[in-house]
Write a structure and sequence with these properties.
Layout: H1 5-18, E1 27-29, E2 35-37, H2 39-54, E3 56-58, E4 65-67, H3 71-84
Antiparallel strand pairs: 1-2, 3-4
Helix pairs in contact: 1-2
């Protein structure tokens, strides 16, 4: 999963911040020191995430167009093939 964090989570969060769709005012600090996101910001993040998952990309190893939301599943299947010995190496997901 760590190979997908920059592409899925970090890129999404930075885009939302840069486009000012999520602002610092959408967060509050609790008495215990935790940070909580308000409902409007949570909805903004979830809608953006669902939209991102529907975008089509060309998988760098498979060479096929796939929905971005399927990439974690495809990488899992490639890892399983490597573990079974069907592939010589694990083709990590490198997205530009």
């Amino acid at each position: 999963m760590e190979e997908l964090r920059p592409v899925i989570a970090d890129r999404l969060v930075l885009s939302l911040i840069n486009r000012r769709q999520v602002r610092a005012s959408a967060f509050r600090k609790t008495e215990s020191g935790g940070v909580v996101m308000d409902d409007a910001a949570r909805k903004e993040v979830l809608v953006a995430y669902q939209t991102r998952k529907q975008e089509e990309i060309q998988h760098p190893f498979l060479g096929e167009k796939v929905a971005f939301g399927l990439v974690p599943h495809l990488q899992t299947m490639l890892l399983a093939r490597f573990i079974r010995g069907d592939l010589d190496g694990y083709p990590s997901f490198l997205w530009k």
